[in-house]
Amino acid sequence: MTTLLWIGIFVATFCNMEFMAWFTHKYVMHGFLWSLHKDHHKKDHGSWWERNDFFFIFYAAVSIGCFIGWQYYGFWAGLPIGLGIFSYGLTYFMVHDIFIHQRFKLFRNANNWYARGIRRAHKIHHKHLGKDKGECFGMLFPPLKYFKK
């Protein structure tokens, strides 16, 4: 029973992270922390590192905090929550940073319906270079309108 509970918490956390990605992107990244996110929309440097990457560090710290809580403080749900956050972060990194933005040259030839829909949705978001008017949505499941043939 404990294993099923942990799996349920893991899946719920992973799915909740899609909401957190949308919320953080709309109200934090395109809000009061635009100064960290703007270099993601308009490169103003030659480095592979972006100020926007600090958001990754924040969520990694939350995940690590869950692992520490589980290991040292008896927070039994810390492991599945931490793994859910980590798994979403890894998936987000693979889809957003590697597949879409090609920060590492992998998955260049992917051309199925999901790949095209994700690329289309992200292009719509990036057509606005400023803080306002950028459509914000979750990364893994953008609105269905972007998946048209």
Task: Give a structural overview.
The chain is an all-alpha fold. 64% of the residues lie in helices and 0% in strands. It contains 5 helices and no strands. The termini are far apart. The mean pLDDT is 82.
How far apart, in Å, are the first and last alpha carbons? 43 Å
Order of helices and strands: HHHHH
Binned strand content? under 5%
Number of helices: 5
Assign the structural class, choosing from mainly alpha, mainly beta, alpha/beta, alpha+beta, or little secondary structure. mainly alpha
Summarize model confidence as the mean pLDDT: 82
User: What's the quaternary structure here?
Assistant: single chain
Relative helix content: 55-70%
Shape: globular
Low-confidence stretches: none
Largest sheet at a glance?
none
Radius of gyration: 17 Å
Number of domains: 1
Number of strands: 0
Could you give the topology of this structure?
Layout: H1 2-32, H2 34-41, H3 54-73, H4 78-100, H5 113-126
Helix pairs in contact: 1-2, 1-4, 3-4
Q: What brief labels describe this structure?
A:
globular, 0% strand, mainly alpha, 149 residues
Q: What is this entry, summarized?
A:
The protein is mostly helical. It has helices at residues 2-32, 34-41, 54-73, 78-100, 113-126.
